[in-house]
Structures are given as C-alpha cells and as structure tokens.
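Need a sequence for this fold. Nothing fancy.
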C-alpha cells in the first residue's frame, strides 16, 4: 500500500474489512466529484516519511481545497502554487525563530524527507468545500497512526497547532516524546500564541539532546 515500513506497522488497518470498505467508498467519490489530493497522493505523508524515520510530526486538519494545491502533506502546496496564508505565517515564525528567510515555494517535501511527518487528520476533501470529508472516518485512521507512533521508544516531537491538532494530544502519553502546542498559524489565530512560540528551535534542541540529527528547516 505505502511501500515502506508503514505497511508492516499498519498491517492491522490494511487487513481490516471496515477500513477497506471505507477506503473504497472514498475512492468512489473521485468518480463523481472533484476530490483532493489526487488519489496517488492520499498517503503521501506516509510514503515520504517512513515509520522508522519519523522524528517530528506536524498535524494539520484537512487538505487544501483549491485546485492544484493539496498533495498529501499538511500545510504544503505543490510547486508553482501561491503560498497559502497559514504557510506564510509558518515561514514568518521560522524566520523569527531560526533566521531562515521564507522560501519562494510552498512545497515542504524537503521537510518530509528528513523525518517530518506532515500528517493531516483528514486525508481527502471535496473541491471548494473545506472539512467536507471530516465526518467520513479518516480520524479513526490518523488517530491510529498517532497512537502507533506514541508506542515508539525512540523520541519524537509532536507539533500541535490549533485546537483540532491538540485533540490528538490524548494519544501521546509516552514521556519519551515532546509535545509542542500553540495557536494555529492561520491569520485568524496566529497572533494569539503562534507567533513567538519558536517550535522549530524547540524541536531541534530536543532532537540534538536525544542524539538525533536536527531538521534543516530551510529545505
């Protein structure tokens, strides 16, 4: 399904009749409506960041719902697409935190390849209808992913921006991990605790303390 260690880690899910029924229903929606991201990118976050390589998790809500934007990574847009306001604010905080100037592109694949799991809670959306797939059942799948990562003895940083992401905190009970919480980077909430929260340096300091290679957030 994924092509890396997630296949074994999620074997219970892939073999579940209920999941397969749900997933086939999601795929059927692509036949009658415009759904994002493209089918082949639904599990892009897992494909790009192997289970064994996850160092940091950044939780998003659901994919961008505009044409050509979503490609299966939370907060990321495909190359050539205008950078959305939330990601502009993420770049601003990155510059404020680590002095890294904003990138010209919104593609965060470079983070994913270093071990940053850019996971949305809901993995699909209908065009121009935000949260349209939020009640289909994707959260059961992504809750399982978080619970699975929580069982790892290898320390992980969980970055939870906004109330939706913070709802996953109850599954992160292993004291070996670090949870970083703040307001969402959206223009509506960024001034209420996102700006100045310094999540990038906090994540890297934790990784270094645990003898792991820090993330190069400029990529």
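Here you go.
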């Amino acid at each position: 399904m994924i092509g890396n260690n997630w296949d074994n880690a999620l074997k219970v899910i892939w073999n579940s009749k209920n999941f397969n029924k749900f997933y086939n229903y999601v795929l059927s929606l692509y036949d009658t409506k415009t759904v994002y991201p493209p089918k082949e990118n639904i599990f892009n976050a897992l494909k790009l960041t192997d289970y064994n390589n996850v160092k940091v998790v950044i939780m998003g809500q659901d994919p961008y719902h505009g044409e050509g934007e979503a490609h299966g990574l939370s907060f990321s847009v495909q190359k050539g697409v205008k950078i959305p306001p939330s990601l502009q604010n993420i770049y601003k905080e990155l510059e404020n935190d680590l002095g890294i100037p904003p990138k010209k592109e919104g593609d965060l694949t470079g983070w994913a390849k270093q071990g940053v799991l850019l996971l949305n809670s809901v993995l699909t959306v209908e065009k121009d209808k935000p949260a349209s797939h939020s009640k289909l059942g994707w959260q059961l799948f992504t809750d399982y992913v978080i619970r699975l990562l929580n069982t790892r003895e290898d320390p992980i940083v969980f970055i939870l921006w906004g109330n939706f992401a913070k709802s996953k905190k109850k599954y992160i009970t292993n004291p070996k991990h670090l949870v970083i919480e703040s307001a969402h980077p959206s223009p509506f909430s960024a001034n209420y605790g996102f700006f100045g929260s310094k999540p990038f340096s906090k994540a890297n300091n934790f990784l270094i303390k645990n003898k792991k290679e820090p993330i190069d957030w400029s990529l």
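For context: The chain is about 35% helix and 10% strand.
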